[in-house]
Structures are given as structure tokens and as C-alpha cells.
């Protein structure tokens, strides 16, 4: 694809509309509890300001479903953005209409403005043509820096690009594209994928797609039990998707034909209940008792997985190895995080829970790249083209 990046544009004196993802978590008092998504956009914002441009930011927050929902206002985000940039961020509370045009027109180079939650308008999620056009008229140049929403084709990342005079990716989106390319398309080999999480059903397309790119696939988490069942093991009360046993068999068969190693758990932390305080036992993967469920990978599996990871040149990780939210079942996930951090490989982690785990483990700065996208990252793994990226290719 022939996508332009922000550093290829002349931005001097221009009004730069930037689609960001400020869908930040906040508590009941509307205090932002994690501003990573805000600080992640600072390189793009600073680049525009240094180039003598005006910055106008577009974002959504939560799922207001096309209606004004006061507690989903982006006002608190404007306040936090003012703190982290050291500049008073102007807030445009009605992004569509003459008021917004006038407000945008009055901005001077070096100013930053944030539009109110774009999902207060039903046209946004409908990818409404006229709405995208109106948004585009607030600026001269359009930059998309919102990877986490790139798998949605909405007015502020799709329709808008048909009317903006110039379209480009910001630094955050550029990093996502470049690192993903490095990992899956031009990897230094061996390339190892570590895939976990609850269900096979949500990751089956990703598994099928990456199977043809990786040298080995390590499968943990709840989804491993459907694969173990496909091998003929009994899995007790563990998570199992009966209807996907055949698909799991097919994946195992395809891997064999391709000479790709699929490595499944050899031992399991089994528990009598989905409860941190329930009785647990480490059992071989083919001997899970009928009245127990597997909630984490066992010590021998951790050792095997980490031994493969230590020889990798590239590692992609998505999905936890167990029900890691409960300390009794978190060791597998955290030890694999440690293994990836210790490996001299290029490492890429994506998906909400694996990113949470890596942040909790304090190892984030030892990972080459942590993706800001959950659903978007998974869709890239599935081999899909993301509307928010494709639309920049003009
Ligand atoms: P996903 O969103 O598909 O990546 O799944 C993440 C969720 O999978 C987390 O909330 C984990 O608690 C859950 N999970 C991982 N392993 C297991 C397991 N063995 N049994 C039940 N849930 C699991």
C-alpha cells in the first residue's frame, strides 16, 4: 500500500485534523485512571506544533450510541491533555455546524483543540458521507493516529478521507504498521507466535492465517483444551468448544503438512472451581480429572514454551496463558511474559489482556513493541485489511 506518513507532509501553517483514540478508562468520579492513550499521541501532536501547524483532535469515548451521554464527554480528556502538553487545549463541544467551523478557523499555529465525543453523533458509526465531509472541512490535512479503532470503518476514519485534501498516518499508526510488517511479513526467523485467551472461536481465523507465516505456534489459555480434546485427551470441566474440535484437528493437520510446529501444554494447573481459593493440582495434560478444570499452564509447559521462545528471533504474543486475573492461575502468563522479555528476539505484544499482563509484570520496557489495538491487532493477525488504514491509501 502507498500510505503517506505524517513526516512526509509539509504542515506549516496548516490545520491538521488528527483522529486519535482517547477512549481512556475512568472511574465513577470521571477521573482518568490511565492516560497511556493520551501520551501515546504526543509525538504526533508535538511534530505538528513544531512544524507550525494547528492541531484539531477527533476522538470517541465509550459507546454512547449516537446520543449525548454526559459521563462520556471528552472534557476531562481536554484537561488532562492540557496538563501533559503544557498548553491550554480548547474544547469544541459541537464538532458539526458553523460554530465548529468558526472555532476551528480562529485557531492559531501552535493551538490545540479537541472536539467533543464524535460518537455522540449517530452519523459517525454509520460512516455517513456528509458527516465525513463536514468534519474534513474543519482542517486542511487529515492524519489518522488511532490504531485501536482502525478496524472500524467510521466517518472520522473512513468517509473523512474521501474529502480531506491530504491523508496520512501519524507516528503511532506508523509504528503499528511498521512493527507488524517486521514481525509477520519480513520476520527474522525463527518466528514464534504465542496465542492464548479464552476461546478458539474468537481466534480461529488468526490461528489459520498465521499458521502459514510462523515457524512454531505455542497455544495456551482456555483455547488449548479444544486442541487437547482434538488429540483425544479428556479435558474434564475445562473450557471446551465442542463445535470447533474438527477445526482444531484441521489446524493440527495443516501444521503437520506445512512442517510448522504446534506446541500444546504438556501439564496443566487444574482446579475444582473457577475460583482463586479452590483446590488445585498440577496434572499431565492428558490426565485432567473429570471434576476439575484447567486454568493455567503447568511448570513443565512454561519451561518448554520459554525454551522455544529463547531461541526465537521474532515473537508475537496475543492472549493470556490462563485465567491470570486470579493470582492462583497467573504464573503461566507472567512467566511467559518474563521469557519473552528475556529472549533477545524482536517481540510484539497485542490484545487487551496480554498487554495488561505485561504492564502488571513491570516488563513493558523490555518488549520491542506493545500494540495499542485489541480488536484491530487481532484483525491484522487474521490477515484482514483494516478500513482505517486502507482509507489512507489514496
Ligand atoms: P481473550 O479475550 O480471548 O484473549 O481471553 C482472555 C480471557 O481468557 C481472560 O479473561 C482469561 O481469564 C481467560 N482465560 C485464559 N485461560 C483460561 C482458562 N484456562 N480457563 C478459563 N478462562 C481462561
Question: What this model shows, in words?
Answer:
- It is a single chain.
- This protein has 2 domains: 6-175, 3-Layer(aba) Sandwich (Rossmann fold); 187-381, Phosphoglycerate kinase, N-terminal domain (Rossmann fold, 3-Layer(aba) Sandwich).
- With 394 residues, the protein is α/β, with parallel strands linked by helices.
- It has helices at 36-39, 42-50, 75-85, 98-105, 122-125, 129-136, 171-185, 204-210, 224-230, 245-258, 299-310, 331-342, 352-361, 375-381, 387-390; strands at residues 15-19, 54-58, 90-92, 112-115, 141-144, 166-169, 191-195, 216-219, 261-263, 267-271, 280-284, 293-297, 314-318, 346-349, 369-370.
- Helix 12 crosses helix 13 (352-361).
- The strands form 3 sheets. Strands 3-4-2-1-5-6 form a 6-stranded parallel sheet, with helices on both faces.
- The termini are close together.
- The chain is built from 15 helices and 15 strands.
- The mean pLDDT is 96.
- Bound molecules: adenosine monophosphate.
- Adenosine monophosphate binds next to strand 12.
- Adenosine monophosphate is lined by residues 197-199, 202, 221-222, 239, 294-295, 319-320, 322-325, 351, 353.
